[in-house]
């Protein structure tokens, strides 16, 4: 575990704020205790017969002051505390972003299951509680502890040590026992709940199948019995929490009695004034309020550890990626020059793969092998193959995200991998689910080029045939897309994303199965718009079926990492029966049986 | 006050026990205050220590009883909350499965899972807190106040007056805070989601070359989020400030007024001390309610959300009229159990007949119909293709046929019995279902294949696995049929998932198959191979296949063409092509290619 990575830096950079928060927290307790202390003192003093009102004037002022100050100090403490935590949260977010950003393109393959990004964001939210719920209360309790023992020590050292022992039970012993007792069980509950979460998500996604199977009550039964198991562990935790509270209170009760007897003894010996008996006794309750929550605060530690471990896991992976950095630096300058020299009006980008191969580890199978491609400016190629045929690896090699393990991949004579951060100046990507950010349509399109004017955005939108859609929206281009573009259908989302990459205006566009999940009409219309809008650009189109293959200069069939067949649509139709068969599946009109009457 | 609260099973004994414990607790508070005050004032008066043993022990005892009561109350309400929470969950789960996949689509998978898991926890916390808090609020302050009045009227008056002031202020501040929250809720939500939104869109940002510069925007948005939050918190924290302020002020006023009367010798020290100890206790229940306010509010809302699902009506298939083959069994229903009757109605045989009469589906009262006036007839073992563009009503029709959805109008005649719907367990058990993404649960491959028919032997499993072309996959898996697949094991490709679903259907030997867009998301070669595997398996069954992939239609016995929620045409491939209607139009538009 490396908690310092996500914990210590923020303590040092916000040290004085932390000191302020803790001081205010301690003052809150101090005011509450002082109210009871001065009150006790006041009424004791007032009851001594010859007193008059002037003699109790000072304690009266004290009572009034402390009575009002606690609320004010506590209010300020909470505000400062939350403000500081939100500042830390902001820093943590930026930091997590910096860690994730370089590995953006590997995230989906590294974390296949679940919504890891959402989880990491939650982890950071959760870490705020380290300070608010654990660090601050514990430090304040320790501070009050020290103050209490020192104050008593000025009266009687031996008794101060005795009271110190009592409080030790509250501040150290009970929390430690608590931690030992709950640590394992809490982990169990958490793991068990994660499992339940998986199980339930699974079942809800497959609800149709469960309903059809007629076994749904069986599922509910097993799910409930799993829940009962968690409830049992949870029940044990709750039992302990109740018992702990009771033990803590019992210690407080005994503390009150001890203090009472000590004070009485001191008074009898004439060491303290009689007025202090009531004052001392009454102060115990508010002071104890600082100590009792420590156990609960400490119990939370294992939960933070979980979050910190997950965050450090991501960070560690980043170090590994960095290790092969040096080779990037060398050719990066050449790549930058290439990008800067691109003629925006009439660009000329030449992509070449010569016997390129890639495998993820030296013992793994080749994901792609011995691929030779020559893609000059304006050429349109379609890549087709089943899942695992190496299509996405090929795209990564072309984009320079990974460096081929064998052979070369170059863009205008410079290694593709050397382009690094410059690659979006050359290649744009439209994939299956481009993300629409929770802002307006215009802002989403503008991401393609932040300097674009309103006219340019509208022009890109028009080119992507967004006009009808936009004119139907309440605020036109300034309509919010809602979370993840929920307002729009799949085809509409793709058109907005298309406008965005048109604005990015790169000489090369990679289309990574952009039409999966769309119905045939939408697919056709979208493809038609794309091909039209991208005239003159190099197109590298990964597709899952053959609609539109006729429009391509070359169709490449991949299987097991290598090229199975390649050629123009016409060539393949003439030469390859396999291609013909598959093409007919997409064009049912020419199929045997109904074909004769169908050919127009 | 939650009107549902009194409706939960076993809530009354809990109220009684908690009420009794609160009473004991309040009395012990009185006792401990009195005991402590007496000891202190006796000692103050100079009486010897050893005479105070009895009273001190009385104090300690009362103190322990008070906290033991708290422990017991928490235990009783926890047990009640746990039991009620589980029963709510159970009811909700049963209901969810009755409502079926349609409902999941409306509410979203994530929402439902969160409601079941976290909602129940929140609801439990609410139940656990609300009863002791409510009882505590209504018993303890009243008792203590009455006692204080018997000791000293003016302290009683101060304390009495403070309570309404506190409550009025808390409500006022609460309302203001809520108004402010509501006002900036939208921008607040956007700000707080911005980070997750950015992380999810990281890949896209990277492709656009904007990922580096975006970190600045994260920092600025986080800062704006902070100032927005702080604006809200400044008001929100005021309510606990008011609570603190007025209780403390009240205690201070009581102390000062006690002091003044002690000086004037209108009161004894014992009384003064007792009142001073009781004053904070008087406010404690209100403070607890304030501290738990948000937790209880969240839990209450979660409880209502669950209740709204449980209270949903599930329309079950009703028998409208029995004639023909089902009639004999229905008449026998007067003596035999009803299930027997239903089973015989819903059984699909080689000579069975299914008629849809003017079926219509409307999701909202005023909304447009998803289906209207659909009348179709099917007999025995046929392959029926359902085709149409998206939004034409294919999936709705599949849901009606599969018994997932109760139509809003029309009737269905099955085996001569007129029914309101097919939503019946007996009907669903006749059907094997293959959706676009079949459900592969985390378990062994064999268990996944045995999903509909858990009793099947391993030989049978291997047989169907071979038949659907999964033998190569099985051979490549380390544990063969016992290898773990799904979430906890090896993940399958789309084509393999379909084959598992197919094996399932085959093993169950159910007389009907329902396929909803089984191949549209697959690459064309996988689609081709899967089709070759599937077609022979359709023989001898009633098959409904809904898709927008036209190539399937050639192999169907009957094609139903859907358009705008209505049946446009019914016929065989060659009939429909010859007619040059809607089906012909669909083929033509796909032939055109891309211009």
TrEMBL record, chain A:
Transmembrane domains' residue ranges: 14-37, 130-152, 158-181, 246-264, 270-292
Family matches, as Pfam families: ABC_membrane, ABC_tran
UniProt GO BP: cell redox homeostasis; glutathione transmembrane transport
Cellular component per GO, a single term: plasma membrane
Keyword Membrane: yes
Gene3D superfamilies listed in its UniProt record: ABC transporter type 1, transmembrane domain, P-loop containing nucleotide triphosphate hydrolases
Chief localisation class: membrane
Keyword Endoplasmic reticulum among record annotations: no
Annotated ranges, domain ABC transmembrane type-1: 19-303
CDD domains listed in its UniProt record: ABCC_cytochrome_bd (cd03247)
Annotated GO MF terms: ABC-type transporter activity; ATP binding; ATP hydrolysis activity; ATPase-coupled lipid transmembrane transporter activity
Cellular compartments annotated: Cell membrane
PROSITE patterns membership: ABC_TM1F (PS50929), ABC_TRANSPORTER_1 (PS00211), ABC_TRANSPORTER_2 (PS50893)
Keyword field: ATP-binding, Membrane, Nucleotide-binding, Transmembrane, Transmembrane helix
Membrane topology: Multi-pass membrane protein
Database matches in InterPro entries: AAA+_ATPase (IPR003593), ABC1_TM_dom (IPR011527), ABC1_TM_sf (IPR036640), ABC_CydC/D (IPR014223), ABC_transporter-like_ATP-bd (IPR003439), ABC_transporter-like_CS (IPR017871), P-loop_NTPase (IPR027417), Type_1_exporter (IPR039421)
Domain ABC transporter: 351-585
NCBIfam families to which the protein is assigned, alphabetical: CydC
The protein, known as: ATP-binding/permease protein CydD
Organism: Paenibacillus albidus
From TrEMBL, chain B:
Biological processes, Gene Ontology terms: cysteine transport
One cellular-component annotation, GO: plasma membrane
Pfam families, alphabetized: ABC_membrane (PF00664), ABC_tran (PF00005)
Domain ABC transmembrane type-1: 16-298
PROSITE patterns registered for this protein in UniProt: ABC_TM1F, ABC_TRANSPORTER_2
GO molecular function terms listed in the Swiss-Prot or TrEMBL record: ABC-type transporter activity; ATP binding; ATP hydrolysis activity; ATPase-coupled lipid transmembrane transporter activity
Location(s), subcellular: Cell membrane
UniProt keyword annotations, A-Z: ATP-binding, Membrane, Nucleotide-binding, Transmembrane, Transmembrane helix
InterPro entries on file: AAA+_ATPase (IPR003593), ABC1_TM_dom (IPR011527), ABC1_TM_sf (IPR036640), ABC_transporter-like_ATP-bd (IPR003439), ABC_transptr_CydD (IPR014216), P-loop_NTPase (IPR027417), Type_1_exporter (IPR039421)
Domain of life: Bacteria
Domain ABC transporter residue range list: 356-589
Transmembrane segments: 53-73, 130-150, 156-177, 235-260
Protein's UniProt keywords contain Ligase: no
UniProt name for this protein: ATP-binding/permease protein CydC
Keyword field contains Transmembrane: yes
Chief site of localization: membrane
Gene name linked to the record: cydC
